[in-house]
Structure formats: C-alpha cells, structure tokens
C-alpha cells in the first residue's frame, strides 16, 4: 500500500506547515505540499502528504476524511499514480495534428481550416 495521500477541498488558508502538523498526529510525515497556482501564487485547494509508512497513512485517512476544516469537509484518500505520457497543455501522448485526416487542411474549407 502506498503512503502518499491526496487531500482535497482544503481551505485556501492551509499552508504546507499546517498540513504537515495536522498529519503528524498520526505518524511521521515525510513531506506535505499544498499545490499552488503558478500565476497567482494562491492555493489550488488540494495537496499531498507523504507518510513514513502505509500504516500511518491509513490511520490518517480513516481519521481525517470528511473532517470539517474552516467550514469545508476535506477529502482524504490514497493518491493515485500520475498518468503516464502527460505533457504540458493537458494533452496526452496522442497526436492531435490534422495530418492524418484527408478532409482537413489549409485551403480546403476557408477560414476554419477544413470541411466537416
């Protein structure tokens, strides 16, 4: 069992250190990170906590899932592994070019670039 925990629906006031201290009650915390928006620097409302063992992680999930923090019911669960092949911009490994479709291309449909 993994020891990485997803924590969602966090109040925007939660910081890395406060997240770490809340989970430390259930065992040793390896890391705690609240995800921040790159442009604004504000919290995205979720984060990840890595516990030293799977037993500590399960104890924290059981105790904290659904708990109210500043009026928000937080979601605490095991973190899912990251999807492979994801690049920047939200596109996967699939080629999104129009080169494979003969009905789409420049000069075949005016301003929109293709016929449909």
Summarize the structure.
Keywords: Repeat, RNA-binding. Residues 3-81 form the RRM domain. This protein is of the alpha+beta class and 116 residues long.
Q: What gyration radius follows from the Cα positions, in whole Å?
A: 21 Å
Largest sheet: 4 strands, antiparallel
| Count of extended strands | 6
Beta-strand proportion? 25-35%
Q: Please estimate the helix content.
A: 10-25%
CATH C-level name of the domain at 4-77? Alpha Beta
* Overall pLDDT metric: 83
Identify the overall geometry: globular
Task: Enumerate the spans where pLDDT stays under 50 for 5 or more consecutive residues.
Answer: none
* First and last CA, distance: 49 Å
Task: State the secondary-structure class.
Answer: alpha+beta
How many helical stretches? 2
What would CATH call the homologous superfamily of the domain at 4-77? Answer: RRM (RNA recognition motif) domain
Order of helices and strands: EHEEHEEE
Describe the structure.
- It is a single chain.
- This protein has 116 residues and is of the alpha+beta class.
- The protein has a domain at 4-77: RRM (RNA recognition motif) domain (Alpha-Beta Plaits).
- It has 2 helices and 6 strands; from the N terminus they run E-H-E-E-H-E-E-E.
- The chain has helices spanning 16-23, 54-64, and strands at 4-8, 29-36, 43-51, 68-69, 72-73, 75-78.
- The strands form 2 sheets. A 4-stranded antiparallel β-sheet has the order 2-3-1-6, with helices on one face.
- The chain is globular.
